[in-house]
Fold:
Amino acid sequence: MPVTELLTTHAEAPWLPWAVQYFFLIGLAASAALLLPWALNERAALHPWCGRLALILGISAVTGPVALLADLHQPFRFWHFYTQLTPGSWMWLGALILPVFVTLALLVSFSLLRPHLGPKQPWLKWWLALPLWPRGRVLQALAWLTALAAIGILLYTGMEIRVVRSRALWDTAWLPVNLLLTAFLALFGLLLLLEVLLPRPGADRRPAPLMLRRAMTATLAALTLAMLLWAVSGMVLGSPSWLEARRLFVNFTFWRHLLLLSLAGGALLWLLCLSRNRRPVSAFDALPALLALLCAWGFRWVVLMNVQTVPKYGAGLYHLSPDLLGSAGIIVIGTLGLWLALAGAVWALLDHMGVRHG
Structure:
């Protein structure tokens, strides 16, 4: 009887922890861009956060692509996207959308923050006085263009994962939806955290946490509904994602614990949001804010890293190497430090008060 042995070759993981940081930061930038056009309206409920949305948009739009370049293994090969036409690739389409989004994001963010730059920076006066910075209806139109580009960013980042049919867990239309909703969850969590750490002075401070908590609760409700619809549709239609998730839950303790941890984190976030729904802002609000950020980041880690531990063809699970996990900590701390450093530099240029009133 002939025996045929199938051998597999060693290959590096296509997604590294840099990708987790990119998807998290670009999600923050894109969700902020979607809200910014409404925040420009002085009578809108979002208007008090206009300056902070601009700050999050601009800094996240810079730090996100830095993490993406690092994830390319050979960062300088990015120019291949522009010399090899592949319209059928979502990654190629993303390479066209990303520079447009980053350019618009920086232009809109600086144009919104520029009026707050005070007279203490005389070396900036000549640059700030240039008539090229958009304002009024032109700025509003650019904000809508940025929001349109943000839709392209959210679409391509979700679809470039979803189209990989060899990964059954990714083979669901609910994946881009969950990436969108968790991006908004992270944005509202970050805004609430800024409200706690750097409260805005004035009479409009009191309703601020109430609105942010309501927004977080609405996002949690949408995420819960999306999860239920994914499960129900998967059971009825027998979708590959649902069947694979069920197989992993039944056969592997790690994935059972991962699911239970996710459900516990979501339930705790629900409890924190509902218990603080009508109370004044306090340091306790940092808990749901940080948990919202952690849940959004953790979802991307599971989708991009843990799913890669499931073999495309075969049984068992792979294990993330200790070196990879060690480097992940450095990557997370490094990108977070870059974000905070840029935010601190911009905040200093804004005289420490401009954004708070923005």
